[in-house]
């Protein structure tokens, strides 16, 4: 049986998709990936991502300033983000990719925290969910989310933390992003977490072209491989594939206010 999927996290504005969008979307559609959310990482990509969403039916935009690029972000970029959100562009569905990262060499963590707080406030102001990045910072991120309540909540993407950390995010109303990490046998902790969390709290994602699945190491990840993440998730979960596919679809469409698949 064929299923329809939403890839809730794909950097479709980067190679190998740039200049090859139509063909890449056709391949994704053949695998059942009907809708793709494209989160920004820096302000200079906002216009391109919004243009992609306007020109391609399956694509939806998220705008935000990613913590990995903290050295590039300044107050004027934050003002630029606020301006875009205020204009309510067509097919803008979230603020993201935003968050915290303590894995990088020079995290400038106080600046990261200030930038996150400002963007959470913008998400609250413009009634949008957030797409959250978190590496070695789950507890600090959960604390930040408690301090700045975002009514539409959001998703902690590419989650690889503990069950207790995932449950803390879920208690706050957030979804957990399931990606290619679960395709690796060695990722037993993450596989067990995804097997135990409520299905109503999970979203499917690739993080393409990053986070390649097992068997594709060294190759750019692609949105059609969301279907393969789904297959692995079905092996880990007790529910039927039909129920998993239906719930993932409902979760995605509910969080991001997406129209049902055409």
From TrEMBL:
Q: Name one GO molecular function term.
A: hydrolase activity
Q: Give yes or no: UniProt keyword Hydrolase.
A: yes
Q: Which UniProt keywords apply?
A: Hydrolase
Instruction: List the InterPro entries.
Output: DNase_TatD-rel_CS, Metal_Hydrolase, TatD-like
- Pfam families recorded: TatD_DNase
Q: What PROSITE patterns does its record include?
A: TATD_1
Query: PANTHER family per the record?
Result: D-AMINOACYL-TRNA DEACYLASE (PTHR46124), HYDROLASE (PTHR46124:SF3)
Q: Which family does it belong to?
A: Belongs to the metallo-dependent hydrolases superfamily. TatD-type hydrolase family.
Return the protein name.
TatD family hydrolase
Q: Which organism is it from?
A: Serratia silvae
């Amino acid at each position: 049986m064929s299923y329809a999927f939403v890839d809730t996290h794909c950097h479709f504005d980067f190679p190998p998709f740039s200049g090859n969008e139509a063909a890449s979307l056709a391949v994704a559609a053949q695998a059942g990936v009907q809708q793709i959310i494209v989160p920004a990482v820096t302000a200079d990509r906002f216009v391109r991502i919004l243009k992609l969403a306007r020109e391609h039916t399956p694509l939806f935009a998220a705008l935000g300033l990613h913590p990995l690029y903290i050295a590039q972000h300044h107050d004027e970029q934050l003002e630029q983000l606020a301006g875009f959100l205020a204009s309510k562009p067509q097919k803008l569905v979230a603020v993201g990719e935003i968050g915290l990262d303590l894995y990088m060499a020079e995290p400038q963590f106080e600046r990261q925290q200030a930038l996150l707080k400002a963007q959470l406030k913008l998400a609250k102001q413009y009634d949008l969910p957030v797409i959250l990045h978190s590496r070695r910072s789950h507890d600090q991120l959960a604390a930040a989310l408690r301090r700045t309540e975002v009514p539409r909540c959001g998703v902690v993407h590419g989650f690889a933390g503990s069950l207790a950390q995932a449950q803390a995010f879920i208690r706050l109303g957030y979804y957990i992003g399931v990606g290619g990490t679960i395709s690796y046998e060695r990722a037993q902790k993450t596989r067990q977490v995804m097997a135990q969390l409520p299905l109503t709290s999970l979203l499917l994602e690739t993080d393409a072209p990053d986070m390649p699945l097992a068997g594709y190491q060294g190759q750019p990840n692609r949105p059609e491989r969301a279907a393969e993440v789904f297959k692995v998730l079905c092996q880990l979960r007790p529910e039927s594939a039909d129920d998993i596919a239906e719930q993932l679809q409902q979760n995605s469409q509910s969080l991001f206010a997406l129209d049902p698949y055409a």
